[in-house]
Every structure is written in structure tokens, then in C-alpha cells.
Specification:
seven-stranded parallel sheet, five-stranded antiparallel sheet
């Protein structure tokens, strides 16, 4: 494969419903999409960086700049054997994993399309269906939260994850457990707590949560290990796992017993697969987290989740939970038993809807070897 052109687009898409975490409330998404072209075939990648550097130090504007000025020039015109070649090409550029992932994942998709095989097969996937959970944001009232949970439980989702923060935790868990004593329930703090909260967090064992996701500092292993010693509930690591070395260090320290793999957070499919393998070697299950992706990123998450150690329900839910109208067809659907069928058709397995992408596009740029062409 030789990448002949890269199209960059920023799309602005309103969410179907506001989504609140400990970082704040999101009502719409600015998203960087990249399209790579080789021998008349194109493939897409999605950068999951947010509008602000809250979840990570990246944001959509930094991702656009670093893609245009640093990453794309390293990729254009280069002969590639697979997506695994991308990390070495990008290695001189430190960080910017979400921007790197968008391009690398597009190359993986391109390779699968040109070979005429499903992306999941190229990644090493073995599952025909993946189990699905949902992430429910912080709600204005408890009653509204209970209504949302009722909707998702009735829809068949296999795991309910509640975003939490100090002041929106124990009372919520108590109410949910009293109403649904047997559902698979977890929580996600997005680093909202400190070690001083450990005694209080330890009392959450009574809620029989599947896991407590990233309760403390986003860049910490040590204090999560101290917390894990004091609680029975599994700590799940998210933001602090950036690569396979982080995964190995965290698991050997005992910082957690579950890992959430977000392909954008770790820099692309190559590193995501490596983290999957490290966790499997340690007997630790993984699952795929969500970042309010469009159907492009969602399709990539489905393919990744087909790998064998993705044994817990991930956040790969239906398109309609986030978008009134997605940019792929068919939109991602979840069965009544809480599963998504992994596509078997070449590439991502979902068709792009160009007119919808164009309608949401607010800026675009075409890059060719040695030149950037405004469009």
C-alpha cells in the first residue's frame, strides 16, 4: 500500500442526548475524521480527541495541527506492508496518540478492504458477536437516571455503567441496587476521587459492582494499587494505560484487575492488540471503552472487541443512543440479548454515507505528498 492522499475533515455533530461525566456536560461533538486513499481505494479513521484537554492532553484542534504538519507527511507516499508499520513512522512524534490512532486505524481498514477480508479478521478477532453494555452519564435527578436504566435494561444490554463523582455515588448505587439487585453494574469515576476517599470507596463492596473504573488520578498506578489492596471490588484501569508497558507495570503492581482498552487512547490498533495480549498473559480480562464515536469509530471498536480476551461487555452500544442520524449505514444495532454481530464483509463492514458527512463538515483539507491542498 502506498498512501496517495489523505483527506482531513472536522465534522460537528449534535448528540441525541446530553452526556455528563465528572469532566462536565457534552451536548455535541467536534470530530476529526481522516480518509486515506491508495490505488483508488479509500478507508476512514476517527480521532476521538475531545473539544477540551480534559480526558487527555489532546483536543481536536491539536489533533488537526499535528496530523497536518507532522503525522500525515510521514505517511504520505510511503510503501506500507500493514497498519503495523505506522507506529515506527510516527515514533519521532511524542504523544498525540489519538491523532496517531486515527491514521493508523484507517490504514488497517484500507489493508482489510484491499485484501477483501473483514477488519476483525485482520486484527485477529475470533468472536462472531460481541457482548454490549452501556455507559449512563450523570443525570439531573435520580428519577431521570432510573428511567434511563429502565430503558437500557429493557433493551437487553448486558452491563450498566454509571458515571459517578463525589456527591453522585453511594445514594445512586443504593437506589439502583434496590431496584435491580441482579444486573451487572459498574461505575466510572474518571479520576474524581483521591486516596483519602479509600475508606468510603471500600464500603462500595456491598453493591457487588463488576468494577470501579479509574477512581483516582489519571496517570497513577501506585495509589490505585494501594486502593485495590483495601477493596474486594476490581479496580478497572482506563486513562493511565497508554501502552503495553503501562499495562505490564500496572498488572505487576496490582493496580487493578481489569483493563479498559480504548483504541484512540493507546495510539491505534497495534498497541491495543499488544495490551490485549499482555492482559491475557496475566489472566486479566479487557473490554472496549467508548468515546462518543461516530459510526466509523464504533465500527473499529466492534472489530477490536472481537479479539478473544475482550470477555466483558464493552461500551460499544447502538448508534441511536448517541446520534439522531449516524454517518454509516446500516447504523450499529444491538440485539434484544445485548449483542452486536461482527461484520464479515471486507473492511469496516458498514457503508459511509458521504452526503451526511458533507452536511456535518465544517472544515476540510486534502494532503498529497509534498503539498497541502485547501478544499
Amino acid at each position: 500500500m502506498k498512501i496517495e492522499a489523505i483527506h482531513m475533515r472536522e465534522v460537528n455533530m449534535p448528540l441525541a442526548h446530553p452526556f455528563e461525566t465528572s469532566f462536565g456536560v457534552t451536548t455535541g461533538r467536534r470530530i476529526l475524521l481522516v480518509e486515506v486513499v491508495s490505488d483508488g481505494v479509500s478507508a476512514w479513521g476517527e480521532c476521538v480527541a475531545g473539544e477540551h484537554p480534559y480526558f487527555s492532553d489532546e483536543m481536536v484542534d491539536t489533533a488537526w495541527h499535528i496530523t497536518e504538519t507532522e503525522l500525515a507527511p510521514r505517511l504520505l507516499g510511503v510503501e506500507l506492508s500493514s497498519g503495523r508499520d505506522c507506529p515506527a513512522l510516527f515514533d519521532q512524534v511524542r504523544g498525540h496518540r489519538m491523532a496517531k490512532a486515527a491514521l493508523e486505524n484507517a490504514v488497517w481498514e484500507l489493508d482489510a478492504t484491499q485484501q477483501g477480508i473483514a477488519l476483525s479478521n485482520l486484527l485477529g478477532g475470533t468472536r462472531a458477536k460481541i457482548p454490549c453494555g452501556v455507559s449512563i452519564g450523570i443525570q439531573p435527578t435520580l428519577d431521570q437516571l432510573m428511567e434511563k436504566i429502565e430503558t437500557e435494561v429493557s433493551a437487553g444490554y448486558q452491563r450498566i455503567k454509571l458515571k459517578c463523582k463525589p456527591g453522585w455515588d453511594e445514594e445512586i448505587f443504593t437506589a439502583v441496587r434496590n431496584r435491580w439487585p441482579d444486573i451487572t453494574l459498574s461505575c466510572d469515576a474518571n479520576s474524581a476521587y483521591k486516596l483519602d476517599d479509600a475508606d468510603r470507596i471500600a464500603t462500595w463492596d456491598r453493591f457487588h459492582l463488576l468494577m470501579i473504573e479509574q477512581p483516582m488520578w489519571y496517570d497513577d498506578f501506585y495509589f490505585h494499587a494501594e486502593l485495590q489492596k483495601r477493596i474486594k471490588t476490581a479496580v478497572c484501569l482506563d486513562e493511565c494505560i497508554r501502552n503495553r508497558r503501562d499495562a505490564q507495570a500496572a498488572l505487576e503492581l496490582g493496580s487493578g484487575r481489569i483493563i479498559n482498552i480504548k483504541v484512540g487512547r493507546v495510539g491505534g490498533f497495534t498497541e491495543a492488540i499488544a495490551i490485549h495480549d499482555v492482559a491475557a498473559k496475566h489472566g486479566v480480562p479487557v473490554w472496549c471503552g467508548g468515546m462518543l464515536e461516530t459510526g466509523i469509530g464504533r465500527a473499529h471498536n466492534i472489530a477490536l472487541s472481537s479479539l478473544p480476551n475482550f470477555s466483558l461487555p464493552g461500551d460499544v452500544s447502538a448508534s441511536k443512543r448517541y446520534w439522531s442520524e449516524d454517518i454509516i449505514e446500516p447504523e450499529v444495532m444491538v440485539s434484544a440479548s445485548g449483542e452486536i454481530v461482527v461484520p464479515t464483509t471486507p473492511g469496516r463492514g458498514f457503508d459511509i454515507v458521504p452526503e451526511r458527512i458533507e452536511a456535518f463538515t465544517v472544515r476540510k483539507q486534502m494532503l498529497r505528498p509534498g503539498v497541502a491542498i485547501p478544499v
